[in-house]
Design goal:
This protein has 15 helices and no strands. It is mostly helical. Helix 1 runs parallel beside helix 4 and helix 3 packs antiparallel against helix 4. The longest helix has 33 residues. The radius of gyration is 20 Å and the shape is globular. The mean pLDDT is 87.
């Protein structure tokens, strides 16, 4: 194996575990939250959760490009340290308080650190030749799916044995261990000689670009509508399932695990065949139809079984993001 190729694989062998551990720290608490949120906020649970997620999304919109530019001048590792601690904060803060308002505030503030994939993709771009990047990006997305396949049921089962608070402490321990890996073991992908200072991101430039390019504006409109629906479903589904159907913590863990597994399979395996066979635009359309069908099934469900059955459609709906990305 050529030395350069071996060095690239050594970098990837560290960044993927770092990504896995960050999202494992988040995923391990996901099955515990719906019951707590419903009990604390009652009928206002969707209002509080929606407000927190909206603020998080707005801050993420600002933070992702800013963090990307900052990492171009400081290196990827310092920025990764910040994003790991920031994005996991809503999970481990509950180890020290039962006040869910503090959780919502931490959730909203975590948007300022929600640039992990911006940095991971930049890291991969630094160390991977263009011909290998698509596969490496797919591996990163599959790693995210793996963390959500393992994390929710693991958290639910741990909670039965040791209690919720200790699960939140485990999330903190995972996050701290992940920062240790970044600081002590992860090789820096951007040496000082390749760093360059850029002006901070100006959001007006993004809108000016959209104003000039009709094609990009239409793609952006599709992405906005799709992800508005996706995040509305993702952020409320398990809260709704617990509130309406009385799902247990373990059942919630299994439901989330199935979503994680489908995400992993769709974005690492199915997309490799669907896009070349069908083309980017037909694949995106098929994914959007599958997501619409998934929403209809959830909306019409009168028992928990359709919720679990609808997960199968995410094998197709998860093709939307990679297909649209290939279009631009």
């Amino acid at each position: 194996m050529p030395p350069a190729r071996a060095a690239d694989e050594a970098h990837l062998s560290w960044i993927l575990p770092v990504l896995f551990l960050e999202f494992l720290a988040i995923a391990i608490t996901k099955s515990l939250l719906p019951e707590r949120l419903n009990a604390f906020f009652g009928d206002n649970v969707y209002v509080w959760l929606g407000a927190g997620e909206t603020a998080k999304g707005f801050l993420a919109f600002l933070a992702c490009p800013m963090m990307g530019r900052l990492s171009d001048s400081t290196g990827r590792r310092p920025c990764l340290l910040f994003t790991i601690l920031g994005t996991t904060a809503p999970c481990w803060v509950l180890a020290f308080t039962d006040n869910l308002i503090i959780y919502i505030v931490a959730l909203a503030a975590s948007g300022a650190a929600a640039a992990t994939f911006t940095l991971v993709f930049a890291y991969i771009s630094d160390v991977t030749p263009p011909s290998d990047r698509a596969a490496a990006y797919g591996s990163a997305l599959a790693t995210l799916g793996l963390s959500f396949t393992v994390g929710p049921p693991l958290g639910a089962l741990l909670s039965r044995r040791v209690g919720d608070r200790r699960v939140f402490l485990v999330a903190l321990a995972i996050a701290l261990f992940d920062t240790f890996l970044v600081g002590a073991a992860l090789p820096e992908s951007l040496p000082p000689a390749k760093r360059h200072h850029k002006p901070m991101w100006d959001p007006r430039r993004t809108f000016q670009l959209l104003e000039k390019d009709l094609y990009l504006r239409r793609v952006a409109g599709v992405v906005l509508c799709y992800y508005s629906g996706v995040w509305a479903l993702v952020t409320t589904l398990v809260v709704y399932a617990v509130r309406v159907f009385g799902l247990s913590t373990v059942q919630v863990g299994y439901l989330l695990s199935l979503y994680g597994l489908c995400t992993m399979v769709a974005e690492s395996v199915i997309v490799r065949y669907a896009v070349p066979l069908l083309g980017e635009l037909p694949t995106a359309r098929l994914g959007l139809l599958a997501f619409a069908a998934q929403c209809c099934i959830v909306a019409g469900a009168t028992s928990p079984e359709p919720l679990f059955a609808s997960v199968a459609l995410s094998l197709v709906s998860n093709l939307v993001y990679p297909a649209l990305s290939a279009l631009v």
